[in-house]
């Protein structure tokens, strides 16, 4: 039975990195008889120019009919011509929410081939292998009321609401506990319960769920400011980390440096499981549209390519192929392939497409 993948490059470097991930997906379809049907769909500025909508109806249809979505990136100054209402209507945030993508996985793995060039020393990075589970559908990015209001004295006030219900906390925490159970059995829950009410509830619910359903998991708690420091100081201490929307957003960019570059990190955003255990799933690199390097063919496509590995594992039912792809990425790095963001001083970096070539060559070789 054919699986359908909607491929949405989006804006900035999104289409550049997604093109390489698409080549990799095609390799699995041809060489490993992966039954996938790929539908490319427009999203963002180009779509807006052509149709007046950031997410045109055909794109919505492709998303609705898909077993998995491979997304690139959205945003950037070049999109200023899109009016704010159209931008909000077609925002990735809104899409994630409408698909109820509540669990966002962000694995951080340090490849040994990068130890020498990574900004941190081998001592610190050795054995880094953890997953940040970021709550993606609620919290301060979505809470109401929100807005910018004018005040009688002529000044203005901008405000957001940080809000979590116990059910929202429990479902993402349950996901993280189950993930920890399939890994090394340790979960660190990150909050700011010393200051924020939603965090107080977060911690209470995590503790209760642990007692009720996951007594076998070793649970710890950390305040987010300390967690930021610990991720830099000793990232190998973590197995699974679960945290809210805004903390997970910030901490995962921070954790990116343990993997060498933001361009290395993949992600999966998952919705609730249906009766067959299948989840709506959107796969995308952790980074954004990187307007500072867009259009130059130099972006690192590995975050997008590794997102395909997550798709193979979590949606397409091909865990062995996921491992093969992750090994191919490691092999390409071991053979010296480096885009500019991870290049060693004095050695010429390769282009986005050449990094794709290197991964494909490794797939052929392994
Ligand atoms: P960004 O993640 O786009 O870039 C941050 C820095 O990392 C830049 O210096 C960029 O050149 C570098 N970088 C990112 N990905 C890279 C890659 N694959 N290879 C090499 N270098 C890479 O974040 P920034 O600059 O804060 O935001 C730019 C735009 O992207 C904004 O409009 C923002 O809203 C949007 N954004 C979109 C996301 C998404 O589509 N999921 C996520 C984060 C930001
Ligand atoms: Mg972010």
Automatic annotation (TrEMBL):
It is found in: Cytoplasm. It comes from the Bacteria. One of its GO terms (molecular function) is 3-isopropylmalate dehydrogenase activity. The keyword Oxidoreductase applies. Its main location: cytoplasm. The keyword Cytoplasm applies. Keywords: Amino-acid biosynthesis, Branched-chain amino acid biosynthesis, Cytoplasm, Leucine biosynthesis, Magnesium, Manganese, Metal-binding, NAD, Oxidoreductase. InterPro entries: IsoCit/isopropylmalate_DH_CS, IsoPropMal-DH-like_dom, Isopropylmalate_DH. Its cofactor is Mg(2+); Mn(2+). It is an enzyme of class 1 (oxidoreductase). NAD(+) binds at residues 288-300. The record marks 141, 192 as: Important for catalysis. Pfam families: Iso_dh. Binds 1 Mg(2+) or Mn(2+) ion per subunit. Its EC number is 1.1.1.85. Pathway: Amino-acid biosynthesis; L-leucine biosynthesis; L-leucine from 3-methyl-2-oxobutanoate: step 3/4. Homodimer. NCBIfam families: leuB (TIGR00169). PANTHER family: 3-ISOPROPYLMALATE DEHYDROGENASE (PTHR42979). Belongs to the isocitrate and isopropylmalate dehydrogenases family. LeuB type 1 subfamily. Catalyzes the oxidation of 3-carboxy-2-hydroxy-4-methylpentanoate (3-isopropylmalate) to 3-carboxy-4-methyl-2-oxopentanoate. The product decarboxylates to 4-methyl-2 oxopentanoate. This is 3-isopropylmalate dehydrogenase. It comes from Methylobacterium ajmalii.
